Automatic annotation (TrEMBL):
Species of provenance: Sporomusa termitida
SMART domains registered for this protein in UniProt: AAA
Family note: Belongs to the ABC transporter superfamily.
Protein name: Glutathione import ATP-binding protein GsiA
A Pfam family assignment: ABC_tran
Designated gene of the protein: gsiA
Alphabetical list of InterPro entries matching this protein: AAA+_ATPase, ABC_transp_ATP-bind, ABC_transporter-like_ATP-bd, ABC_transporter-like_CS, P-loop_NTPase
Amino acid sequence: MAVSTPLLALQGVSKHFHGGGIFKQGRRVQANKEISLSLADGECLGLVGESGSGKSTLGRIILGIEKPESGAVFFQGVNLYGPDKAAVRAVRRDLQVVFQDCFSSVNPRLTAGESIAEPLRNFACPGFRDVLLAVGELLELVGLTPGDAAKYPHQFSGGQLQRVCIARAISLRPKLIVLDEAVSSLDVLVQAQILDLLSDLRAERGMSYVFISHDLAAVAHLSDRLAVMYAGEIVERLDNMENLNCLTHPVSRALLAAILPAQPMNRDTR
C-alpha cells in the first residue's frame, strides 16, 4: 500500500537569532531547534506555547519568509528553500496566511476590495469583471456584503477587517493557511464567530490550517492535533484532542490552567 505524501513536512528545522543590546553582542538566541512535523490534506495542526517559545518564527519558516539555518520544509513535495524557484512559485499560491494584527496586514490606502483582489491579480490574472464578481462572492462567504468592497480599513471593526483578511487568504482556494494568532486581538464573542467561520470554510473548501496561538481553548476548538512549544522545541504532542487533559508537560499544564471552566462555580479563584 502506497504511503501518501504529506501536504506539509518539516524535517529537522533549526533557526537562531543574534541578540541585541550593548551587553548581548554575539549572543545567539535559539528560536527553533530540530523541529520535525507533518500535516495532511484537510487537517488542522494547533501550535501552542508561551510568548517567545518560537512558534511564530516557525510559522514564518513554513510560509517561506524566514529561512532556516538547517533542515528542510516541503510543501506539496516541493522544498520551499530549495534551488528550484519555479517550483516554489508554482506552489506558493496554495500557501496563505492570516496574521494577528489585521490593521497592519492591509494597506490603509487600498479598499477592502482592492486588498482581496491583490492575490487574484498576482496569481490568477482574471479580467476586471471576473475580479469584481469574485471579490463580492468572497465577502459574502466571510459574512460581509459586496458593498463592503468599497470601504477602507479604518471603516471596519477589528472583527470585520479580520474577515476581509480571511477573504483575501482564501481567494485563491489555497491548500494551507497559516493562522498566526489570528483571533488573539479580538474580543471573546468575535473570537468565537471567527473560529466558527474558519471551521465552516475548512469543511466547505477542504483546506488545512496551521493554527498558531498561546490560547489553548481557541486551538482546541479548531485543531485535530496539537504540538506544544517551549524554548524553541516541541516538548509535547497530542494526536487526539479529546485527550487534552492528559497533557503532562509543565508548559502544557499552565496553558490548560488558563482555560476557564464553563461553569463559574468550577473556577479556581485562589
